[in-house]
């Protein structure tokens, strides 16, 4: 790809960050459309109610770790149409639900018919005590993309509304520092990196709203040493993966450098788990029910079989099970107590 020249200025070329910001969240943007994310792709939340039940279980464990406060906050960060917060409220035991205060943070408007207990807002509330949970938020926080030119220099990738790309100026300043620390591309023409700085800042701000409790970011993730050499920018429309075009017609997403996000908060005690590990520790198992149940309780067997299938999807290697769970405690001694092995949990 050739660098953009002065003659191209004003030809609608923008960095991917600005272009994606407008395409996803601007007037008429993709995420403001009435069908919501579920009209275009399936997250863990849509895959099975077992996911919300596991998050509710985590909220109960946070509640215990906090000494059962009078008000227990649950923040569904980047809530889509409020599916997760609705599922969590439904799965909480009555004594916890009675103390729970539910917040959904979203760019899009409050959906009609949402549980009136859910407070719908554009920014997370300050000073919360409880659990802030962000499922597939950070991958939708737009980032700049760098591509190495023929001289081995990483340059900003510029894009037009039709998806045509050119190279812009060399990456500099804080973005160059981020690349050098977290994703230094080799000096090989065509290699790409996604500059996660806006995600680090977004995550640091979100975790900064916690007075005490736990912040969890769940996303497609990669860590230093295993970055994808050509980046991960892609798009989804009506259930299909498609070419990324910043025209508001599709989701634009790129995997998240969760290790960089963790470091940006400067909070001690962060852990990075796979979704498989996290959900197993929260009591989800993809194990099939014993065949003997089929003769003693056929309906129960069918239900258990369906649940096992859903749990298997949520924890599948090569699929949702490989998602990263960045877990960051604030004022909780050790998050290992929250993610205890199921067998251990049942013994205590
Ligand atoms: C991939 S969807 C995930 C929705 C939901 N969490 C789920 O897992 O089904 C990403 C959502 O993040 C929202 N979003 C992105 N940036 C946001 C921000 N800064 N504040 C609130 N919501 C945001 C989008 O509007 C979109 O609904």
From TrEMBL:
SUPFAM superfamilies recorded: S-adenosyl-L-methionine-dependent methyltransferases (SSF53335)
- Which Gene3D superfamilies has this protein been placed in? 3.40.50.12710
Domain of life per record: Bacteria
Q: Which residues form a coiled coil?
A: none
A GO molecular function assigned to this protein is: protein-arginine omega-N symmetric methyltransferase activity
Work out whether the entry's keyword set contains Nucleotide-binding.
Answer: no
Keyword vocabulary terms for this entry: Methyltransferase, Transferase
Q: Does the keyword Aminoacyl-tRNA synthetase apply?
A: no
Record Pfam families: Methyltransf_28
A GO BP term here is: methylation
UniProt cross-references to PANTHER family, sorted A to Z: PROTEIN ARGININE METHYLTRANSFERASE NDUFAF7, MITOCHONDRIAL (PTHR12049)
Q: What is this protein called?
A: SAM-dependent MidA family methyltransferase
Q: Which organism is it from?
A: Streptomyces capillispiralis
The lineage is: Bacteria, Bacillati, Actinomycetota, Actinomycetes, Kitasatosporales
